[in-house]
Structure formats: structure tokens, C-alpha cells
């Protein structure tokens, strides 16, 4: 790789990490004429447009990158992922299968193919491929996590728990513990499940619903004569479902402030009295 290309790669990736997608796009397009057939430049543009949510432009550049770089796993994987996102699963599968013929032990390609099978509701195929990955890379915590997800998809929650526990031993990330919480709750292990569910607020989860406000979180202490702020986290359906517990909370708290979806404000005001209700 030339020093100029290395500089382009470094600068564009830095811009993407900083979320400066428009600048990354302009930076790459300004240099595109010279490098229009280079797989890495087209891959980078495919990444930018993928992050911007423009799947058509992403696929345009990724296809060019793929034609000139079928041997580069990262290009093949992102191209397949974007094809799948565009409801072209058969084409995505064909792209990955061809790549695996040439590189049958490539971990990135195998994981992508296993994920594609799971997304296509073929968990047994996903289990078969992930088992192969585990033979090749026995210390892969990501593979154990993927196997856990596949077992959950076929309602084998005991085996799912076994593999997610192994993954967490090697990588105690918030996302893995959050995944385990669902399995634990499904199995009826409520105390451990709810404890793990607190991981949804982990700093390493990008989509964490954690509120950055300067008030302490409730830690099960007595609420008599105290005010508690109840914040929404999930979708409207979840808010409606869990609102059934607000009357119970009213019985132990001095005052409740409810922050909710704007669409639910009037509904809650009519059905829940003595609450201060505000849209978020």
C-alpha cells in the first residue's frame, strides 16, 4: 500500500470514528478520480454511505470494491451485509460462499455467513457454521455468544446460557451480560436476570438509554416522602405494558414524575392520577 493511500485510509477512518461522515465523504470523493478502481477507496465510501443510511450508494461503491477485491475479507463481509440489508439474501449468501471456497478457514467470513443464516431464520445452519468456527478458533468469545443466540432461536435456553456464560468469562461486556439477562429471565431466574438487565445502561453500549442527569438512581431504598423520576427506555408498547406497575409505585413513593412518549401523555393523564406527567 502506498504512503498516499495509507494517509487516505487513516484520515477517512478518523473522520468516520468522529462521526464526521459528510467530511469523510467529501474527502474520499475529492480523491476518487485517481483511485476509482481501487478496492479500499470504494470500500471506504461504502462504509461512509452505510453509516449515513444510504444503502443504494453504499452498495454502488461496495460492488466496485468487491469486483476489484474479492480476496479482501472486510470488503466481502460488508458487501454481503449490505446486500442482506437490501433484502438480497441469496446474493449475499452467494458472495460469502464464493469467498469461503477460496478462504475456507477465514474467521471473519465464517462469522458473517453464520450471522446471515441466523438472520434468515436458519439457526441450525448458524449453529453448524459456528461449531466449525469454534473448532478453528476455540478461544473466540464472539463465537460462543453467537452460538448462544442460535440456541435461543430454537428455544434451547439451557445450552444458550451455557455458551453465553463462556463468552462472558472471556469478555464481560455490557452487551453480553444484557444478552444473558434475557435468557435468564426466560428460564425464570429472575434475580440474576434483572441484575444482568442493568447492563443495558453500560457505557460500552452505544444505544444505552442511560440518562445523563445529576440525580442518583433509585437503589431500592425507601421512597416515603421522596420524589422519583420514572424515565421511558423502550418503545410505546413497552411503556404501556410497564405502566401497570406505576400504581404500585404510587403506594410506596411520596411523589412520581413520569417522563413518557409525547403520544402517551394524555392517555396517562386520564388513567393515572396524582402523577406529574411530561413528554420527553
Write up what this structure looks like.
By secondary structure, the protein is mainly α. The chain has two domains: 3-170, Alpha Horseshoe (Serine Threonine Protein Phosphatase 5, Tetratricopeptide repeat), CATH 1.25.40.10; 227-279. The chain has helices spanning 3-17, 21-29, 32-35, 39-52, 55-68, 73-85, 89-102, 107-119, 123-136, 141-153, 157-170, 174-186, 190-197, 236-242, 246-250, 265-271, and strands at residues 227-231, 255-260, 276-279. The radius of gyration is 24 Å and the shape is globular.
Counting helices, strands and paired strands, the structural category is: mainly alpha
The percent of residues in helical segments reads: 55-70%
From the coordinates shown, what is the CATH architecture of the largest domain? Alpha Horseshoe
Strand content: 5-15%
Integer average pLDDT: 93
What is the subunit arrangement here?
Answer: single chain
Classified in CATH, the superfamily of the largest domain is Tetratricopeptide repeat domain
| Largest sheet descriptor | 3 strands, parallel
Poorly predicted sequence stretches spanning 5 or more consecutive residues: none
Number of strands: 3
H/E topology pattern:
HHHHHHHHHHHHHEHHEHE
- What's the helix count? 16
